[in-house]
Amino acid sequence: MAPKPVLNLILMGPPGAGKGTQAKMLVEKYGIPQISTGDLLRAAIASGSELGSKVQSYVTSGGLVPDALVLDVLLQRLSEKDCQNGFILDGFPRTVGQAEALGQALEARKMRMSAAIAIVVADAELLERLTGRRICQSCASSFHIKFSPPRQEGICDRCGGALLQRKDDTAEVISHRLEVYHAQTKPLIAYYQERKIMHLVDGIGQIDVIFGKICAIIESLRGLDSAQITR
Ligand code: AP5
């Protein structure tokens, strides 16, 4: 019997590039879970857990949480049943160390990444995107006061929850997050280019148009080399 197709994706890009927005749309289309390390870390902080207290200062200041802590969280999540048929990594890996650890962990499970997709957006656009972002406290849907406003101000279209601004979406913290991205995460584009799984997508334009480009990449993987999406 042919092996079951598996789609293991990395969505990369600077803060505010649209990783979370696109990942949620991919979840609906492909039925595989979004694994956002940022969401997992914020949930740990909100729960008041020991992990949450260890990571809080990094997340609120826009620095990177130490690799070992993030890896624990990520690998635990990847071992859950809903990841068996694929997953979308949103915000992981962010350092070469994380990428190497991910590669080793997948190899040990006889798995591999299907593709890394980087959403490319210039820094100048990102500040406006992030300062205008509002997140639903109940269902985590993301809106923008100008680019994708909710029908009713401050209220989530999908579940009626309250829309709030993230603590790290201030101009000062955004500027630090961008510095960290350029110094530590952007080099992963070359890392995955060397491994021949990197795809760049222009992240300026309408959300649906960008989604179409990402889906075209995924469909080309299926068409050109089904082994790449097969465990
Ligand atoms: P994380 O939560 O991952 O934040 P991030 O990478 O900074 O990314 P964002 O969530 O801010 O942006 P996004 O690309 O998802 O954009 P979105 O779709 O929301 O990480 C937060 C922190 O956690 C880190 O700083 C770090 O401390 C820690 N952390 C997480 N992972 C870690 C790791 N692996 N290692 C160590 N530390 C880690 O869109 C942004 C806005 O723009 C929205 O309002 C949206 O509506 C709008 N928008 C989206 N697309 C468009 C478009 N095409 N045009 C106009 N507006 C758009």
TrEMBL record:
- What EC numbers are recorded for this enzyme? 2.7.4.3
Residue intervals of the Adenylate kinase active site lid domain: 133-168
Q: Which GO terms describe its biological process?
A: AMP salvage
Which pathway or pathways does this protein act in?
Answer: Purine metabolism; AMP biosynthesis via salvage pathway; AMP from ADP: step 1/1
Classification via Pfam families: ADK (PF00406), ADK_lid (PF05191)
Query: What is the enzyme's class at the highest EC level?
Result: transferase
Q: Which UniProt keywords apply?
A: ATP-binding, Cytoplasm, Kinase, Metal-binding, Nucleotide biosynthesis, Nucleotide-binding, Transferase, Zinc
Under the heading PROSITE patterns, the entry gives: ADENYLATE_KINASE
The protein's job, in short, is: Catalyzes the reversible transfer of the terminal phosphate group between ATP and AMP. Plays an important role in cellular energy homeostasis and in adenine nucleotide metabolism.
Which HAMAP family does the annotation name?
Answer: Adenylate_kinase_Adk (MF_00235)
PANTHER family the record matches: NUCLEOTIDE KINASE
Q: What is this protein called?
A: Adenylate kinase
**Which species?**
Candidatus Ozemobacter sibiricus
